[in-house]
Amino acid sequence: MPVPKKEWKGLALVRALCSSLFALAICLCSCPRSHAQESPYIVTYDHYLEEPGNLDVEYFSTFGTQRGAGDFHAFWMEFEYGATAWWTTEFYLDAQTTFHDSTLFTGFRWENRFRVLQREHFINPVVYIEYEQKNGADKILKEVEGHDVESDDAVANASLRQEHDRELEFKLLLSKTFKGWNVAVNPLAGKNLSAGHPWEFGYAIGASHPLALAASPNRCNLCRENFIAGVEMYGGLGDADSFGLHDTSHYLAPAVAWNLPSGWTLRLSPGFGLNDNSHRFLLRWGVSREFAGFGEAVRRLLGRL
Amino acid sequence: MTAWFAAPLGLGLPVALANNSQKRETRTLAQPRNDESVYGEIAKAPAEARAKRNPFENDAKAIAAGSKLFEQHCAECHGNMAEGSKKAPSLREDEVQRAEPGALFWVLTNGVVRRGMPVWSKLPEPQRWQIVSFLKSLRNDISMHSASLP
Fold it and tell me: In chain B, what is the straight-line distance between the N-terminal and C-terminal CA atoms, in Å?
């Protein structure tokens, strides 16, 4: 019996997706582990890029309380690749579950970070450019911008998913590491590409420090140098029509990262809303694994096939 | 559908395993990227950086810790024995072994971004010095190896 054209297209799409996943799995199987030295930040960026040719696969979750509707669990996957020592590119897939409502895929993001200066300086700038295609139900709170407030999320998913946004986001990542302390400041400007939306602004700042500066001679999971503790603060700064700290949300979030010698990194960060416009509590956690030489493995695989 | 899933798996795993074994082979056999301009970065270290003393000089524990850090962060490109690979130069060469510890620390801190070496200032200073201690300890390995040759 002939397969209808629409069904055939769907099947072809599933096949393409599965074969891509197989190719990814094969490449990851052939990559040795790489010990990451990841910061504890979940929203803030420091100036360190992914090592060239390495792929960092990351999963993050955000549990958030919600007044006026069900609490939510938003989650996302990140595929972060070090294209060169001065350019890191990253692809995100976002989704969320709102309790007593539904679970849905909310969009994707493509992020690029470019290191501006070749060497370390007093302050190290990195330019961040991101394209987002998401619907209104996106709740990962990877950044807060404009007049983002808690009540925006207190709407049923069925309504929120009808809103489709295509956004460009620019950040200037300024960061400095001195005597083990990293301090990072990220001003951001975002523009919804649909007509009539003004530029929106936001910020994220963070500070972190490893629990020990020198490494111990033995290979160990629980050594103090494997833990980095920090704190980050992020929020909106209004938009071009109404700039400032008012009518938007702000969060303060202590954070800790545990970099295991096996190449895994675990992160945990409880966040607290600082005003009435903010979600009262956010609990974020993440797990990531760095694969060394992924680019080389892909090139070899493509050369073989 | 099952056959379609099984085929790439059946083909893919041997390819992946073969790639893995080939990778180990490549690491040891590939011609290291040892042209002089690569080592020229060491000469660019400013006098102030060169003059810095390694706080862990001749500290056996620091060498052991440096060896661990080297394996975790550097061996991927420079090879498990710092012998170099097609991605990055050998660190056993005279240019590195004769360099001041402060100059090596400076290169490690600033990277050689244009040539693909990332900045490593994300490692705290003591850890970077521990790596320098390990690199300098390779000189003894090399002289012992040379002495044992007929």
Answer: 64
Nearest to B68 among A22, A217, A300 (CB): A217
Nearest to B117 among A37, A85, A120 (CB): A85
DSSP code at position B58: T
Q: Is residue A82 part of a domain?
A: yes
Q: Please tell me the total count of domains within chain B.
A: 2
| Residue-number span of the structural domain to which A229 is assigned | 31-304
Nearest to A297 by CA among A81, A77, A109, A89: A81
pTM of the model: 0.85
Please check whether residues B64 and B98 belong to one and the same domain. Answer: yes
Are B7 and B40 contained in the same domain? no
Count of domains forming chain A: 1
| Weakest-pLDDT range from A149-153, A301-305, B100-104 | A301-305
Residue B6 has pLDDT above 60, yes or no: no
Report how far Cα A238 is from the mean position of its chain's Cα atoms.
Answer: 22
Are B12 and A22 an interchain contact pair (Cβ–Cβ within 8 Å)? yes
CATH number for the domain that contains residue A238: 2.40.160.40
pLDDT at A302: 83
Considering only alpha carbons, which residue of chain A is nearest residue B129? A214
Q: Once rounded to an integer, what is the mean pLDDT over residues B134-142?
A: 83
Mean pLDDT of A50-73: 95
**Cross-chain Cβ contact B126/A214 below 8 Å:** yes
Radius of gyration of the CA atoms of chain B, in A = 19
CB distance A51–B121 less than 8 Å? no
Which residues, in sequence order, are bridge partners of residue A272?
A252, A281
State the average pLDDT over residues A134-158: 94
Q: Do B90 and B116 fall into the same domain?
A: yes
For residue B147, the model assigns a pLDDT of 53
8 A C-beta contact, residue A111 and residue A90: yes
Clarify whether residues B102 and B134 are in a common domain. yes
